[in-house]
Design goal:
Layout (H helix, E strand, L loop, with lengths): L1 E5 L7 H5 L11 E5 L5 H13 L3 H22 L3 H20 L7 H25 L5 E3 L15 H14 L5 E5 L2 E3 L5 E3 L4 H12 L4 E6 L20 E3 H9 L11 H5 L4 E5 L8 E4 L7 E16 L9 H11 L7 E3 L3 E6 L5 H8 L4 E15 L8 H8 L7 E4 L5 E7 L3 H12 L2
Parallel strand pairs: 1-2, 1-7, 2-4, 3-4, 7-9, 8-10
Antiparallel strand pairs: 5-6, 9-10, 11-13, 11-14, 12-13, 14-16, 15-16
Helix pairs in contact: 2-3, 2-5, 3-4, 4-5, 6-7, 12-13
Length: about 425
């Protein structure tokens, strides 16, 4: 069985939703994971924000506006009167629920329920559409088998235990539809997966049933070897290892959330990134294998703050770095890059909400310097210790750009460089010319 995930743009209009059958083969065993219709989640967030702020009037107006959009959506998706009535019953049910919330105290618990409505709507409407054209499918409620534990981490054994009987009970069917993003938490409340959303759902399902393959369909033909918004002539990458894909995703490749494919990686399930708008494109295949002897791609991450702690006490002092890291741990602030010398340590963060408190504590260790408006440029490929020449080519490509930090050797897959954000565009283009032209 394969897992096919389609994002919001892939189901963003009735026309796009009907064209999914150009990709989905109803005669192959597949679980199709759908996101909410494009724009719906943003509207639901807006509705929740109004309700949380106590502005029920504006919240209700947003509910009505979204309802009218779905009324039009149903008319176009389901022209047959009988099936159109079924579609209207679905949207009436969900929007009546949203309207009723104006009569209750609205808390973050209700907020999660509101956000779940987008995926519940898209999957049910698509199931009805398939029925209207005579294609058999089974609608699987994700809330019956997707669950997180006490640490808000997905419970894959729970998914296996509760999904497998549902599949076996419908053994004669090949096409299953379910919701991405949504789940229940350890208290049984409606919740969501946060990181990676529907991509995460697809990866978790692939791991839970040991699928043949997970396919993530978006509006771009796989990961590219540079940012196509900035650099001309970028090309999709045919094959990446999970580690390489995670590096690229973390350092700026927006097509994939860095943690969304971890379950597939753990259970050795191949992941393929494909383009809904161009289904014949090869896309990018992500597996455990790494293609040796190649530089694969360049990515950049903005909004980086660099911190340097300089202290003579660091010299030969064991435990110094541990105490520095404990400061960031206390304030739940992840570190991106780190370099050290005998008298100083430099590191970067991209979450600055607790920066003043962090600086105050770090000043107990020595002099602290803070530089903002930086970007990390990450070059991903085969940088194993036995390789030579690749790192020098990277540095040669940036010889005319001031470099604040360099991180090399943390893994076999990347070289990361910190530069001022004003140089990012020039850096990406220069590296592309040096490494790929």
């Amino acid at each position: 069985m394969k897992i096919l995930k389609f994002g919001g743009t892939s189901v963003g209009s009735p026309e796009r939703m009907t064209k999914l059958l150009d990709i989905i083969n109803p005669n192959e065993e597949q679980i199709v994971v759908l996101s909410a219709v494009s724009g719906t989640t943003n509207s639901l967030v807006e509705i929740s924000n109004y309700f949380l702020a106590g502005d029920k009037k504006k919240g209700s107006e947003c509910v009505e506006n979204l309802y009218q959009k779905y009324k039009d959506f149903v008319i176009e998706l389901l022209p047959d009167a009988d099936f159109q009535e079924m579609g209207n019953e679905v949207i009436d049910y969900h929007f009546s629920f949203l309207a009723v919330l104006t009569n209750y105290i609205f808390t973050p618990i209700e907020e999660k329920v509101v956000l779940a409505q987008g995926e519940l709507l898209s999957t049910t409407l698509y199931h009805i559409y398939l029925k209207s054209i005579g294609v058999e499918s089974v609608l699987l409620p994700a809330l019956d088998f997707m669950k997180t534990d006490e640490d808000n981490e997905p419970d894959i054994p729970f998914t296996t235990k509760h999904l497998t009987p549902l599949l076996e009970a419908n053994k004669g069917n090949k096409l299953f539809i379910t919701q991405g993003f949504i789940c229940r938490n350890s208290f049984g409340e409606v919740d969501n997966l946060r990181r990676g959303g529907s991509d995460y759902t697809a990866s978790l399902l692939g791991a839970a049933i040991m699928a043949e393959e997970v396919q993530i369909w978006t509006d771009i033909d796989g990961m590219h070897n540079n940012d196509p918004r900035i650099v001309k002539g970028t090309k999709p990458i045919a094959q990446l290892s999970f580690d390489e894909a995670a590096e690229l995703a973390y350092f700026g490749a927006k097509i994939l959330h860095p943690q969304s494919v971890f379950p597939a990686q753990k259970y050795k399930i191949p992941v393929r990134l494909l383009n809904t708008m161009e289904p014949s494109a090869a896309g990018t295949l992500i597996t455990h294998d790494s293609e040796k002897g190649k530089i694969k791609s360049i990515a950049a991450k903005d909004g980086i703050t660099a911190i340097r702690i300089q202290s003579s006490r660091m010299l030969l002092a064991y435990g110094f770095l541990r105490r520095v890291f404990e400061v960031f741990e206390r304030y739940k602030t992840p570190i991106d890059m780190i370099t050290t010398s005998e008298v100083a340590v430099s590191l970067t963060i991209d979450e600055t909400g607790n920066l003043p408190k962090i600086i105050e504590e770090l000043e107990n260790f020595g002099t602290v310097e803070v530089d903002t408006n930086h970007s990390i440029v990450c070059v991903v490929g085969d940088f194993g210790s036995e390789k030579h020449g690749f790192a020098s080519r990277v540095l040669e490509g940036l010889k005319h750009i001031p470099i604040r930090m360099i991180s090399y050797g943390g893994s076999n897959y990347n070289v990361s460089l910190l530069i001022l954000s004003e140089y990012k565009t020039e850096a990406l283009r220069s590296l592309h010319n040096r490494l790929f032209e």
